[in-house]
Write a structure and sequence with these properties.
254 residues; three-stranded antiparallel β-sheet; alpha+beta; Nuclear Transport Factor 2, Chain: A; 18% helix; four-stranded antiparallel β-sheet
Length: 254
Amino acid sequence: MSRTASRPRVPKPDAVLIDAADVARECALESGGEDAVGEHLGHEPEGERVTTHYFACTLPGYVGWRWAVTLTRASRSKQVTVNECVLLPGAESVLAPRWVPWEDRVSPDDLGPGDLLPVADDDPRLAPGYTSSSDQHVHEVVEELGLGREWVLSREGRDDAAQRWYEGDSGPHTDTAKAAPGRCGTCGFAVALGSSLGQVFSVCTNERTPFDGKVVSHDHGCGGHSDVRLPSPSSEAPDHVIDTLSYELIPLES
């Protein structure tokens, strides 16, 4: 016996609710006012004995919006009841940008002198440094520092930082790194970080490069590598340069 997927049941149009467009308009007028409700745009069945009527919104600044008035009625009753009346945007409506939490909107350039950048109590980038932890990396950080700090970098915080640095301007994927004569891991100006981050990252100390004081990955590189040297001067004497424009060369008679 074969089985077929059941199709979603399409609500049956309700003639009583469809004919009650005037009731829906009165509700829209009561909510928005005489100058806010325009022409009737149609109706749509929402369920059994539930229908929504749509009216154009004529309010300034609400181009493409529409009033949606949902009507319903009890079984075997001709009495129409208003369920809700809302103002909804259409396909061409101008909407506000999607809301972004504050911690996702702030950028490093926003922090100025005297500004405070609070950290949430449950920030996943940090872990308590004074309590026992099942994360071996946390134990390594606490033992290495030995300072009894209240908070230390969590494994998630370390992984996020490593990914951000590796995919940034100091990683191996930039044009500067691809054209470099050598990698930072073999450069004398690169000082490896402590803890597990030192396995992948160093800090550049070459003041003549744009990466001075910045974290760079070991497979990053630039033209300021410590192995770069100027070519040695040639020991051969250069040919004499003779000005043939101002002077005329006359061969000497032998």
